[in-house]
């Protein structure tokens, strides 16, 4: 198969790129997806209680609003169904149940080896996400009973009346604990560090509201704009302003004190790190569940034996172990499969940590663009907002190049942005010393978050600028004239349906 664009991954990023390509009139592309369905994270995570912690109408494509979300924070199944419907116009471009086995730049384009046969592409788009490789605790011993990660929930395992261990207290853990505790005879939750948790200001959308959204799309556009503005204001409370952060911390600790009267338990659930260093979570029922008599909050998992889990101080006999232990976010599993212009793999290029110019382009890997990759996340706003900005950048690059042309970002541009991000991350709560999924444990470098607001990212990178790139065809190379800029600026985030 020969195409202009090969997209790897069919989650939000891959589907969004494909839909925009189709809307732009591009017909020569393929989407390679290893699973048997689209949806990415929202396909894989089916644990009880799974839901979005970003307002649903900000956590969907701006060009494909969904008037049918039932709540402010949509349940996971609604987001998965939304992505399934979004994929309908591009079904014929999908190659499901297809693994990427290798991708190699041959001097003219990308040669992909897949489980369904070879693919030749001028442009490679990596949209595999960062929550794809579950992190499993490396502790001694082995448990004899059922053990599974929260992102690969085993629905065949019965929890009614069972003794259950939940390992971890991150975003997935606080959502699933109340659901597990309703069914289990006992639950022990094992935590390395307690998170900050704020009240979840959720509410249902009435049938009348959903009908109004369907009949008056401008109302959804206005709601999205308001939600975006509200989220941008959270930057100070998460990152930018010490006073605002201390106020938010106080609110989280008041939430804890209000729901957990027991002083000993409250102490165990009090975070030991700066507010914003880890992901701030939202729940109205986690603390109440943790206070139930059949629920125990204990220290980190240190070892297994066939019948039990062990913390530093205690042994707990259990029937089932649920690992809500997150993902390998700073080392991407696809990186070892992609070999660039010099013969080095992307994993080798990233040996000192992930980095990319505009969070999207990597020196040594021509005509390759990464969506939802290095420093493309936010701690205060929607990931979909960032993905759409990157897609605008990708489309600008494609508009700039005719068939057969090659673009490669300079090493200087990539390095300069990496140094800027490192400099701007110093003094931020993420680098204050706690263990989090933003910082690469190999070198202490903050590799996941954009250090500013989403508005700034959009202003800098939604429009493709060719100045940091070299352009070449076979046998010819030149630097583009300074000031060349061919991308079209689009209104955002409340842009009209495309």
UniProtKB/TrEMBL annotation:
EC number: 1.14.13.-
InterPro entries xref list: FAD-bind_Monooxygenase_sf, FAD/NAD-bd_sf
Keyword Signal: no
UniProt keywords, alphabetically: Monooxygenase, Oxidoreductase
SUPFAM superfamilies on file: FAD/NAD(P)-binding domain
KW Oxidoreductase (keyword) present: yes
One Gene Ontology MF term: monooxygenase activity
Protein name: Flavin-containing monooxygenase
Source organism: Terrabacter terrigena
